[in-house]
Specification:
184 residues
């Protein structure tokens, strides 16, 4: 669905709620992994990247330890590549460290069908053999088509398939908000 044909139904999360969710997820990641040893964060391009950077910054505030962060582009791993665009734009994956033997936390904005995460898993495995892969998501909206679930969730949000969850981030959109859109 094209977002230009959509209207805002409701603001679900404002900037302060998003900040609290980032803080909570950072604490949950640290608790589950018993600290930062062998822990890396990898954001799925596009909106997973600033979320991963924010989580890394929050973890550094909490633990005093800077985590390695990377950027994963999944364009060529998508199973809907032919329906996305005639000539899809491929960006660079930027993971300047070895993921073999690491606890990788994949970060993205919305978990919906699970297909983006499946593509990200394929892309990651091509780069090395992590000890463990975990998933941190800002919004889990349900409607899974694959058996994938998030380890860390900012907010669970049951939606209809006709609605669109629009995550806005300062770094990309100029503001922090999660909006629920519906067709006009």
């Amino acid at each position: 669905m094209d977002k230009t044909e959509m209207k805002i139904k409701k603001e679900l999360i404002d900037s302060s709620a998003m900040s609290r969710a980032i803080t909570r997820i950072a604490h949950e990641i640290l608790e589950k992994n018993k600290g930062t040893e062998d822990l890396v964060l990898i954001g799925i391009r596009t909106r997973g990247v600033p979320l991963a950077e924010r989580l890394a910054a929050r973890i550094e505030e909490i633990e005093g330890q800077k985590l390695p962060t990377g950027i994963l582009d999944i364009t060529l791993y998508r199973d809907d590549l032919s329906t996305v665009a005639q000539q899809p734009i491929v960006h660079r994956t930027e993971i300047p460290f070895d993921i073999t033997g690491k606890k990788v936390v994949l970060v993205d904005d919305v978990l919906y069908t699970g297909r983006t995460v499946r593509a990200a898993l394929d892309a990651l495995i091509d780069l090395g053999r992590p000890l463990q892969i975990q998933l941190a998501i800002m919004i889990d909206r349900g409607h899974r088509e694959l058996p994938i679930r998030a380890d860390f969730v900012g907010k669970n949000l049951p939606t209809s398939k006709t609605e669109v969850v629009d995550v806005n981030l300062k770094e990309i959109d100029g503001k922090d908000a999660v909006l629920l859109l519906e067709k006009t």
